[in-house]
Amino acid sequence: MQQQGLTKDDFTLANKEKLDNKLYNSALCDTLQELRQAVEAMYHNLNTLQSRSGDQLPFTSINYGTCTFEEGRLVTRALLLGSLEGIGFHHNTPIFPCGIFQYMKGVNDREGTPNYDLKQLAMKSTSQRLYPNYANVDWSGNEGYDRNDPRTYFSTMGCRTANGFDIKRLRTVEGRARQYLPNHHHYAYAGHGSRRRCGEVYDAFRPENTRSQGYFN
Fold first, then answer.
1. Contact indicator for 188, 181 with CB cutoff of 8 Å
2. pLDDT score recorded for residue 35
3. DSSP letter for each residue of 143-188
4. What is the full DSSP assignment across the chain?
5. Which of 63, 77, 123, 164 counts the most CB atoms within 10 A of its CB?
């Protein structure tokens, strides 16, 4: 590697011209095979293993569709193909993970954009396997996000829960617990049937209160 003037950063799918063609194709073939097996194992495990409570599968979600690096596109394609393939002998539709395809202008919204082919594959998967769902990264509530920082992209947790701000009001999807007003409304109404009680529940989950109670320490 050093004799050829290459570094580890040169070994990417987009750098094919600088790499030996035979070795490149061999490595790519091995990578695709291992990636398919990894996705197959993930779908199988998430739909057969029980959560700690022992009464349901782990609720898992994966947001994808905006990465335009070749490596990221390979992973996204593998996830969608795994969804289409199904699980088990009868190729059943997997319950988890909940796939969420992130729709983004200039990335996958129309023909000619880098990931338009992946959006087409996602729509095929949705028509046959229910997933993925779709999240509009460019909706008005996510105005001002950083296109160079995927952590600021609008994403969801698979059902009705949107990832947005952490407890310090920083827009990020990392290192945060779930706090989304509709959930607290549902819990309050289900338990007490009171708008006043609903407000009390939400106040209890405000960052300044949860931090003082040690919920996020």
1. no
2. 94
3. TT--TT-GGGS-EE-SSSPEE-B-TTS-B-SSS-----HHHHHHHH
4. -TTTT--GGG-SGGGGGGS-HHHHHHHHHHHHHHHHHHHHHHHHHHTTS--TTSSS----EEEES---SHHHHHHHHHHHHHHHH-BTTTTBPP--SEEEEEE-TTTTSSTTSTTHHHHHHHHHHHHHHS--EEEETTSGGGTT--TT-GGGS-EE-SSSPEE-B-TTS-B-SSS-----HHHHHHHHHHHT--HHHHHHHHHHTSHHHHHHTTTT-
5. 63
144 phi, psi to nearest 5 deg? 95, 5
CA 7 – CA 2 distance, rounded (Å): 7
Mean local confidence (pLDDT), 36-54:
86
**In the structure, what pLDDT confidence band is assigned to residue 203 with cuts at 50, 70 and 90?**
low
Q: What is the mean pLDDT of residues 37-41?
A: 95
Mean pLDDT computed over every residue of the chain: 78
Higher pLDDT residue, 35 or 20? 35
Burial, 63: exposed, middle or buried (Cβ in 10 Å; 0-12, 13-18, 19+)? buried
| Closest to 107 in 3D by CA, of 158, 169, 64, 142 | 64
